Every structure is written in C-alpha cells, then in structure tokens.
Amino acid sequence: MTDIAWLESRPGIGARFTNALLRATRAKTPLDVDNHQALIDARQKLDKLDTLMAKLRRKSSLPFTARESVLAGIPVMELTVRAPLAPATDGILLFIHGGGFFFRSLHSHMLLAARIAEQAGIRRVILPLYSLAPESLFPVARDECRHAYGALLASGIDPDRLAIAADSAGAALALGMLVKVRDEGLAMPRAVALLSPMLDLGYSGDAIVANAAHDPMFGGQPMPPPTYYLGNTDPRSPECSPLFADLSGLPALYVQVGSTERLLDDSLRLADSRHSGNLPVAIEVWKEMPHVFQAYDFREAAQARRHIAAFFRNMGFARPMATGRV
Predict the structure, then answer these.
(1) What are the pLDDT digits (tens) for 260-282?
(2) Is-above-0.70 flag for pTM?
(3) CA 307 to CA 302: how far, in whole Å?
(4) Which helix or strand (DSSP H or E) is residue 254 part of?
(5) Are the C-beta atoms of 41 and 319 separated by less than 8 Å?
(6) Which candidate in 107, 118, 144, 168 is catalytic?
C-alpha cells in the first residue's frame, strides 16, 4: 500500500542557489556531539540567527499571529493563520518541529507550519515546545508531545479534525508518539505528513554513505548516533527509531524527501511492509532538494507545501467552517 513517486524535474535556479549556499556555509568543523556544552553553544548561535531572520521579515507580512500557551503542562505556541488560501476548515494542525533534538529554530518552524496550514485552509496550529537535549534525554520529548496530543483530545477535539506534520527529528517524535497513542488505545489523528524524516537514529541507511558527497546540508560530515539525546538507549530500538517499530494502525502517511539527502532511506524504507504493514504510505522523492526544503522560499518549496496541503484536504480530516466563523 505504498506509492513512491520520483519527481525528476530539474531544480530551478532558486533551489540550485540554495544548495550552493548550503554547501558553502555548512560547518567546516564538525560539531562534537559528545560535548554537551558545544551543543548548547551551537543552539544559542542558531537561535540568534533564527531571530535575526525573523526580524528581517516585516511582521505584517507573516501569515499568522502567535501566542504561547500550555497544554497538559507542556508549553506550546498557538498560531492563528490570518487568511487561509483554501476554504477555511475547523481542522487543527499539530506541528512537531525538528532540530536534531537539541535546537528549535522557532521562528522558522512557525513560518513553515503556518504556510502549510495556510494552503490547507487550517486556521489553528499547535507547536509543542518540547524539552531539548542534552538537558533532557529520551523519552522526555516524545512523551511531552504525547501529553500535548492527549490534552487536545481531552479538550473535546474530534481526532478527525487533527492532522500532524513533522520535519526531520520531529518525525521520530511524531511517529514514536503515535505508536504510544495506538498502544494506549487513544484515538488517532486523521493524517500525518513527514518532511525529510529522521526515523533511524542509528543512521544505518545506505544513503548515509551513498549521498555523503551530495547532500547540500550534511555532506562530508560525520553522522554519529545522537547519544546526547538517546543517553544509553540503543539507537536501533523501535522505542526511539520508529522505522523499526510496528506502525500498523497508524494514520495514512505522506512523506517528502530530497533525492540527495543522506536520510533518504529513512523515507524509502517505510515502503517495507515489515515496518508499515497495511499502512497507506505515499512518498515523494524530490530531485536534488536539500533537507527540509519545504521551509525555503524557492519554487519547489512552495509546490511541496501545496502538495502537503492537498494531501490533508483529500484525507477529509476537517469540515468547512460556517460563513463568518473564525
């Protein structure tokens, strides 16, 4: 029940420029993942860059407003999309952000989530601000996402109104959370979209080596398992690497990944029925796109966001809003 589509169109000038920029600016000195202070220092630098990029955008141009809130004791950002481009629905998007488990890039992730919601006709977006490594180890972040999801259900929200999107490391948290939700007998969301997912924390896919020279973001860098997040947990344990978990009974999955990503096989291996069973999985492989390319401003990124929105709408996860309802 898996459909893999290889999109072979030549990348446009915007994507090619972005790839060149990533190759030119990626860290020349690999980050020492065993040095926890170095990770925290890197997070602070990334946060400053993220804040600077946010300031360069006019606030009035953002497609959302945001406020911080709390769900089941978990801090979250609640976004309200100003003017959905598709007919507005009563759906809610739960967005699980990536960042290697140790950083957040909050402004960038809020913009990405809001842009997807805007295309899908979703007004309300929830981003859990889960605890980060190395201060908090597995399974804290996964379980906090699970509590936030459970709080949405407990508030009376129909699970058919819920869709989930997650990028990179957030995909491991999202699928890990949903495995727990299934095992606990709770209701599932309607649909799940994964963007450049990290699903095997042992990095055992063939593309880790095969794409080492081609990945614009991670090429040429060592990729040791994220022990700063896992602690003593085996990286191939299905508890933390959902690629090896039983995913039967989960909602339909829609996956987008770049053909030159070192994490490519984390997506392609979802096609193996030993992992996905009868789970409907649609995978799009975009030619020469960088990691989480949906977050950029070039043509293919906008197209990909429209594809995600169409997937959500086609799944019928929400109902049209009544005229005048906000």
Answers:
(1) 999 999 999 998 756 667 789 99
(2) yes
(3) 9
(4) strand 252-258
(5) no
(6) 168
